[in-house]
Amino acid sequence: MKAAILYEVNKPLVVEDGVTVDSPGKGEVKVKVAFTAVCHSDLHFFTGDIPSPLPGLAGHETAGYVDEIGEGVTKVKKGDTVIIGTVTSGCGQCYYCKIGKPHYCVERIAFGRPKHKNAKGQPLTLMAGPVGGFAEYTTVPQELVTPIPKNMPLDKACLLACGVTSGFGAVVNRARVPAMSSVVVVGTGGVGLNSIQGAVFSGAYPVIAVDVLDSKLKTAKEFGATHTVNLKKEKDPVKAVQDMTNGRGADYVFVTVGSVDAIRTGFSMSGVMGMTVVIGLAQGNLKDFTPLEFIFNEKTLTGAGGGSIRSSIDIPFLASLYQAGRLKLDELITAYYPLERINEAVDSLKKGEALRNIITFEK
Ligand SMILES: [Zn+2]
Ligand SMILES: [Zn+2]
Q1: Domains of the chain listed by start with CATH number
Q2: Stated pTM of the model
C-alpha cells in the first residue's frame, strides 16, 4: 500500500509504495482509509516544532471502512463506516470513565506505537496522534474508532475526528457555556470556527471573533459570529471586547491559536469570573500573569484537549446535527487532494490559505 512518510523535517513528505501495516491484534481494528484531513497538529511535526523520531507517519482526522477486526472486538464489524480520532472512548471501568470523562481514561492509548513499516521494513513512528491516517490502511485500538451512520458522507465525517470536536467540544463539553453568556474566540481557522458554532449552539451572545485577517473574520460571521475584532487594525482590542460586552469583558474566551501571546491577550479579554480555555498547541511558557487577576477577579485559565469529548456520544451527535443542517461541515473544506499531491495540501495549510484540505484515498 501507499503512505506519505516524513523522513526529514521541513522536507516534503515522500509518497511511498510497499508500505505494510500489522494485522489487527486483540482489541484492534484495521481500517481502509477513505479520507484524512490535514490538521495544524500535523504541521507541528512536519516542521520539527514538536520533535519526533523519524521516519514518521502522521494524519489523525480519518474516516474509512472497517477492513478486519482483531480478537475480542465488539464495537464494529467488517464494512462498518467509522472515523478514527485521537481521543479514546475509554475503558468504561476506571474512575474517569465512570464520571463521564472518558478522554481522561487511565487506559489512554499509548501514543506513537508503530504499526506501519516502510518499503525497507523500518517502523514508522505515529505522529500527531496514534492514527496513521496518511496511509491507505491503518490498524488502531478499537477505542479510537467511532462507528457513524452509513448515510453520513465520509469526507465530511473525517472532520469530526479532531478539528470540529476540538473547537465545538471546548465550548460545549469543557466550558459548558450557559445561554446568554458572552464568548470570544481568538483565531478563526479550522478549529476556531467550530468554537463559534459551539457558542451559537449554546445560546451565547455576543459571539466575538478575533483574528488578524479580515477574510477570516468574514468567514467567522458566516459561521455565526455576531461581532469581530481585527487584532492588527484595532488600536486597543481588549477595550473593543469590553465595549461589546457592556464594559465587563467576556464570560468565556477560547484561544485556538497556538501562541502564548494570544493566550495572554485572550485572558485580558475575559471579565470578572471569566474563563479562558486554551485549545491551540502553543510552544513556550506563559508569563506576565499577576496573582491579583486571579484573586480579585476570580478568573480561570484552563485548557481543553480534543474538545474534552465523550467520543462515542458526541461524534454521532455531531454527525446528526450535520445531517439536520445545524452544523456546518461542507463550508470547512477548502480542497481535496489525492495522496500523491499531499505536499500541496500541506503547503496550502502552512500558508494559511486553507481551513481544511482533505486527502482522498477513494478512487
Ligand atoms: Zn487535529
Ligand atoms: Zn477508563
Answers
A1: 3-161+329-360 (3.90.180.10), 168-305 (3.40.50.720)
A2: 0.93
